[in-house]
Amino acid sequence: MHIIDDRVDILGGNRKIAEENREMFDSFGVKAVNIMGAIGSGKTILIEEVVARIGKDVKIASLAGDVISDMDARRISKTGIPVVGINTGKECHLDAHMVQHALEKMDISKVDLLLIENVGNLVCPADFDLGTHSSIVVVSASEGDDIVEKHPMIFMISDVCIINKIDIASAVGADVEKMERDAVRINPKIKVFKTSFKTGAGVQAVMDWFKNLLGR
Amino acid sequence: MHELWVANALLEAVLEKGKGLKKIEEVHVSVGCLAMVNLEQIEFGFKMLSKGTPAEDAKIFLKPAEAKLRCSEGHETNEMIECLDFSHLLPIIRCRICGGVAQIIEGKEILLTKIVGE
Asked: Domain segments of chain B: what residues?
């Protein structure tokens, strides 16, 4: 009979690889951002807008996570930036290991800003550090104005919250101010942007945040 | 939601720590009460994934662990919050002493603590 007493951190394996990713980004001077959010909230259009508005001055690349398709990767590649798609298969989130593998297919030395689009999910991505410098969570008015308070963990660990589709808030009966109050109540340090990527409302402020992250 | 990922990571850790053992009989795991995972699903996932390994027939002991909370006033409390039954605390986790917003210091960890085998 052997008894092995030890404390092995099961989630620690991911954290260790996340640290390796972060060191790699730092060594190449890359700023990496984890873009999480609900399905259909506007994660992909955020990447398209960042490329369209600041892509002339900043070398941008993207990793696009999806469960089984490469639709987001193909959509982003139309903007002209390098994209690697990550199919998570059965998994509901990206983890640091998947990101590390995907980076093998990309020349990171030519990148200033890496935008990682996570799987559309407000639960699981909150538990998996990818090694990025900042985390954004995107939600939209069409998901209902209780979407923030129902998923507190992801707002606790995010630096930025984007509340999108504010142009249709009244049509779907969503109180955008309540969504903002919930986000700040859950995480007093979170920076909230209220946007409509369709009309352009509030989008410039998001771009200014990205420029600030890049020190420009 | 990602219990299968946790079960797989747990199995890898068990096989690594129990290297050289022909048969792993017991696996003890401490699960922070704010890890937000379903214990039955982890056990089920482990049983499925461990087939054909020395851990195949292992008994799994998943023990919930207390969370440590600290509020902005500096109060520290230990709380055992029933997994998947903490909605009264949310969306903000509040300090039991002053009612202020509390940060989670511990309570999201999943630790393999002991393996018994031959």
From this structure: 2-67+106-117, 68-103
> Domains along chain A?
6-213 (3.40.50.300)
**AA identity, residue B113:** T
Architecture of the domain defined by B2-67+106-117: 2-Layer Sandwich (3.30)
Give tens-digit pLDDT for A83-137.
999 988 877 899 999 999 999 999 999 999 999 999 999 988 988 999 999 999 9
Cβ–Cβ under 8 Å, residues B24 and B18: yes
- The amino acid occupying position A180 is E
- Which burial class, exposed, middle or buried, applies to B12 when counting CB atoms under 10 A from its CB (0-12, 13-18, 19+)? middle
Please judge whether A6 and B114 are an interchain contact, meaning their C-beta atoms are less than 8 angstroms apart: yes
Instruction: List chain A residues with CB under 8 Å of B104.
Output: 156
Query: Across the interface, do B114 and A92 touch by the CB < 8 Å criterion?
Result: no
A117 Cβ under 8 Å from any chain B Cβ? no
Residues of B with Cβ-Cβ distance to A186 under 8 angstroms: 91-92
Q: Find out whether the peptide bond into B64 is cis, omega within 30 degrees of 0.
A: no
What's the pTM value of the predicted model, to 2 decimals?
0.88
